[in-house]
Predict the structure.
Amino acid sequence: MRFTVGRLGTAICALTAVVAVAGCGSSSSSSSSSSSSGASTTAGTPATGTVASVAALVPASVKSKGTYTVAADASYAPNEFVGTDGKTVQGMDADLAQALGAAMGLKVAVVNQTFGSIIPGLASGKYDMGASSFTDTKAREKTVDFVTYFSAGTSFYTKAQGGVSVNTLADLCGKTVAVEQGTTQQTDATAQGVKCKATGKSGVTVLTYPDQNGANLALQSGRAQVVMADSPVADYAVKQSNGMFKLVGQTYGTAPYGLALPKGNGMTTPVLAAVKALMANGTYKAILTKWGVELGAITNPQINGATS
């Protein structure tokens, strides 16, 4: 699950074209995809008009802003990535953000920002929502509010030919693992290295990269033997690798994703109502199916629904 993330530049994106679909672009740019307040028009998903009962819940202070700014670190396909035009943020989270905004009667702009800047940006008022594969945790709930909307765990993947055997975290002893910087995968792999050494085994070499593209490139080049990532991201990377990678072992640590919101700004109730409306009218299922992540669908979204 994601905690802090950066992005690699266009050179790495070019090298990883066969192993990642995350778009190439500077992390300092504000790539956006906007829709009118009347309906979500994201290609390939049902148009979602304003739901009057949901829009009525939106505080006047939010309605008066004109544009509802949603921040995402677009380096985590298929959840969020930069499209082929080099600037538009696409993916499950971008589509959901647009559909949620439409249901609430708000014009949405999805902007590409580094993951580590999103929560501080929410606190400062720069962003109105973070939709970037955030894991809802009790620690995070002290700083921001969440509305849960998805469920994901951690998966392992290796080279399809000659890859190492990994079933659980315990099998990482003596292996080199590539992870995205600041994720729970980094925390888990590091902690497992300590456990390995405590039992007299070789530790885990943990290679960290600013974004998932870098981790994929490490596996492709042979610097790493295994990659750990959120389950939908791992599955997508394997599907896009043209047979180069394969999923191995057991997915573990399933936990909810949450849409991050400024603490106490009155938006948790309308966002929760909007998520439920999208579930009821079929838009939620259509978006997840479009991006091949329907196995992560939930049926009971909650405000601050962290499990740990």
